[in-house]
């Protein structure tokens, strides 16, 4: 019965549009639009009611530490400055962990570059099929030459399929991307190591340009020599 009921054509009832005399008020609100607007309105009403109940039943002697760690500015709670949240030892430990992670990624990328370079090198350089035989006399040399001519194989064709060429080109692009990533990780590792060393104790100063033996784009620091007991 359901298939027969669906086979009968029905009239498509269209919703009434906004009359031309009320075009200035925009689109005519449909029932589904009213449902969404009513749900949002009642949700806001419930939130305000709950907040009023919390304020009415609030304990005036209640205390929690966030009261002294925040301040009100124009009716908005703002937390205090968290700049000195960690101690110097904790910051040094986090720096060490970050440097260890960067070093691990750098070593992993270097191994991948070496492996990919070796594979591409073996693909580009085909091994030669030439063999060197050593004979004791001329008669043995003739026998070896006749045997080699009989077992000679036609050299492989230089034709390379298109899918192999595409894979090789993709591998070369991957190699270039990994090399650039290695360079970026090396720069990041050097910068983080320098920042970590600058946070350590000890007198140090930044060298001027006239004090440098070879010019460098990055700042160079010199530590004062200290006697270690």
From TrEMBL:
Composition bias of kind Polar residues appears in: 146-157
Main localization of the protein described in the UniProt heading: nucleus
Where is this protein localized, as stated in its record? Nucleus, Nucleolus
Q: Where is this region: Disordered?
A: 1-24, 144-166
> Which keywords does this Swiss-Prot/TrEMBL entry list?
Nucleus, rRNA processing
Q: How does it assemble?
A: Component of the ribosomal small subunit (SSU) processome.
Its annotated function is as follows: Involved in nucleolar processing of pre-18S ribosomal RNA.
What family, per the record? Belongs to the UTP11 family.
* PANTHER family (alphabetical): U3 SMALL NUCLEOLAR RNA-ASSOCIATED PROTEIN 11, U3 SMALL NUCLEOLAR RNA-ASSOCIATED PROTEIN 11-RELATED
Q: What is this protein called?
A: U3 small nucleolar RNA-associated protein 11
Q: Which organism is it from?
A: Hibiscus sabdariffa (roselle)
């Amino acid at each position: 019965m359901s298939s027969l009921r669906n086979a009968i054509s029905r009239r498509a009832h269209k919703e009434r549009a906004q009359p031309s005399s009320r075009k200035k008020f925009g689109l005519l609100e449909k029932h589904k639009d009213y449902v969404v607007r009513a749900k949002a309105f009642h949700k806001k009403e419930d939130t305000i009611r709950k907040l009023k109940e919390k304020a009415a039943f609030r304990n005036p002697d209640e205390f929690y530490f966030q009261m002294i760690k925040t301040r009100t500015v124009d009716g908005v709670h703002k937390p205090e400055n968290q700049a000195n949240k960690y101690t110097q030892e904790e910051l040094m430990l986090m720096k060490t962990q970050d440097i260890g992670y960067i070093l691990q990624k750098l070593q992993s990328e270097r191994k991948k570059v070496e492996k990919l370079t070796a594979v591409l090198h073996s693909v580009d350089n085909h091994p030669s099929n030439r063999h060197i035989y050593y004979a004791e006399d001329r008669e043995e040399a003739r026998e070896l030459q006749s045997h080699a001519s009989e077992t000679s194989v036609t050299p492989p064709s230089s034709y390379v399929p298109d899918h192999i060429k595409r894979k090789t080109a993709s591998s070369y692009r991957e190699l270039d991307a990994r090399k650039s990533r290695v360079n970026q990780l090396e720069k990041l590792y050097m910068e983080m190591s320098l920042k970590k060393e600058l946070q350590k104790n000890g007198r140090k100063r930044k060298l001027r340009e006239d004090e440098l033996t070879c010019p460098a784009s990055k700042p160079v620091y010199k530590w004062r020599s200290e006697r270690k007991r």
